[in-house]
Amino acid sequence: MTGLDLSGASVDAARAASPEISYVQGDVLRAAEVLGRERFDVVYTGKGALVFVPDVALWASQVAALLRPGGFLYLVEFHPVLYTLGLIPTGDPSLTMVDDYLPDRGAIPVDGTYTYTDGPPLASATEYYEWRHGIGEVVTALLGAGLRVDLLRETPDLPYKRWEDMVCTGGVWHRLPEDRPRLPMMYSLRAVKG
């Protein structure tokens, strides 16, 4: 098993937490150069990674290059609908759409004062950038890279409690109560290299 991350500090922390796994620092958009071509049976990408990828077609070509024939990508990602409801919950129970679904505005500046860990504000808060990718864009990029998508699922569950009235469905998983709209919060897909 091999992990890849752009951040040297993240790689160091991962190595300390899981020394039995090989971790490599590098750019995901140069993954095949960094890790080697056709080395892997499975490539996994998950939960918030794609928003840091400016070029999803280039990313998909790197995934395809990493996979051996018959290997597959398994992607678990936050659904683009979730991002339309805003990055940080406002406490408004109406689930008002506050942002775009369609990903055609380029880089989106994001206030880096808070992280997904829900910890205290960062002392050296900075702005960072995200790129939103619709499911259609992701699937089209994977098909263009020569992969065959054979599974696509959407789910109303999140691995954290984003809104106060969310109901725990087991472990870390939460969803909106039954009397609220059923919206896709995450999606997963599998794409196989021919």
Q: What is the CATH topology classification name of the largest domain?
A: Rossmann fold
CATH architecture of the largest domain: 3-Layer(aba) Sandwich
Radius of gyration computed on alpha carbons: 18 Å
Number of strands: 10
Structural class: alpha/beta
How far the N terminus sits from the C terminus, by CA atoms, comes to 22 Å
Largest sheet: 4 strands, mixed
Low-confidence stretches: none
Average pLDDT score: 90
Domain count, please report it: 2
What series of H and E elements makes up the topology? Answer: EHEHEHEHEEHEEEE
Please indicate the percent range of residues in DSSP E strands (runs of 2 or more).
Answer: 25-35%
Helix proportion: 10-25%
Report on this model:
The chain is 21% helix and 30% strand. With 194 residues, the protein is of the alpha/beta class. The chain folds into 2 domains: 1-36, no CATH class; 37-193, Rossmann fold (3-Layer(aba) Sandwich). α3 crosses α5. The longest helix has 11 residues, at 56-66.
Short description:
By secondary structure, the protein is of the alpha/beta class. The protein has helices spanning 8-17, 31-35, 56-66, 80-84, 135-144, and strands spanning 2-5, 22-25, 40-46, 67-78, 108-111, 127-130, 147-155, 167-170, 173-175, 186-193.
Detail the topology: elements first, then pairings.
Elements: E1 2-5, H1 8-17, E2 22-25, H2 31-35, E3 40-46, H3 56-66, E4 67-78, H4 80-84, E5 108-111, E6 127-130, H5 135-144, E7 147-155, E8 167-170, E9 173-175, E10 186-193
Parallel strand pairs: 1-2, 3-4
Antiparallel strand pairs: 4-10, 5-6, 7-10, 8-9
Helix pairs in contact: 3-5
Keywords: Methyltransferase, Transferase
GO molecular function, one term: 2-polyprenyl-6-hydroxyphenol methylase activity
Domain Methyltransferase type: 2-75
